[in-house]
Amino acid sequence: MPLLDIHAIREILPHRYPMLLVDAIVELEAERIVGIKNVTVNEPFFAGHFPDFPVMPGVLIVEAMAQVAGVLVLKSIPDRHRKLVLLASVEQAKFRRPVLPGDQLRIEMKVTKRKASVAKMYGTAMVNGNVVAEAEVMCKLADKPAPDPAESPVEAPAALA
């Protein structure tokens, strides 16, 4: 049973389909988190990467890792609805095996360094106990931009009789 299901994750992360790449959080500690991404053949990227041999793009595996890290960072912030976690850097990324439709990615991220608005984390993505990717990501906490009042819906004037 997940600690955080997709509904709870959507309350924390601003990402939405097709860019929300975390389906569940199964372990959560102060400096460590484990998330799950169920990879299905219906993922939009498989249509072009590659039609005859569908493989999850490495950049999206790293994005899923960064999103799991983002849940850890945002979960502990009381005013998280006013914050974004931005990916600031990716280092030492390595891809060991392809991720295919039907695989379940188990993503573990651990904090290696943390300051007020920056967190550096090392993580691994595994399928069936085998490491498929690893990377160190740095995330920066930022304020969400204020909504532009010019973009808010305006009621149309009532029709004249």
Structure description:
- This protein has helices at residues 6-12, 58-75, and strands at 24-28, 32-38, 83-95, 104-114, 118-127, 130-143.
- With 161 residues, it is α+β, with helices and mostly antiparallel strands.
- It has one domain (6-145): Roll (Thiol Ester Dehydrase, Chain A), CATH 3.10.129.
- It has a six-stranded antiparallel sheet with strand order 1-2-4-5-6-3, with helices on one face.
- A hairpin with a 2-residue loop joins strand 5 and strand 6 (130-143).
- The mean pLDDT is 93.
What are the SSEs and their pairings?
Layout: H1 6-12, E1 24-28, E2 32-38, H2 58-75, E3 83-95, E4 104-114, E5 118-127, E6 130-143
Antiparallel strand pairs: 1-2, 2-4, 3-6, 4-5, 5-6
Fraction in helix: 10-25%
CATH homologous superfamily classification: Hotdog Thioesterase
Number of helices: 2
Looking at the structure, the CATH topology is Thiol Ester Dehydrase, Chain A
Chain-averaged pLDDT: 93
- List unreliable stretches of 5+ residues: none
The count of DSSP E runs of length 2 or more, i.e. the number of strands, is 6
Shape: globular
Distance between the termini: 60 Å
Q: Give me the oligomer status.
A: single chain
The CATH class designation is Alpha Beta
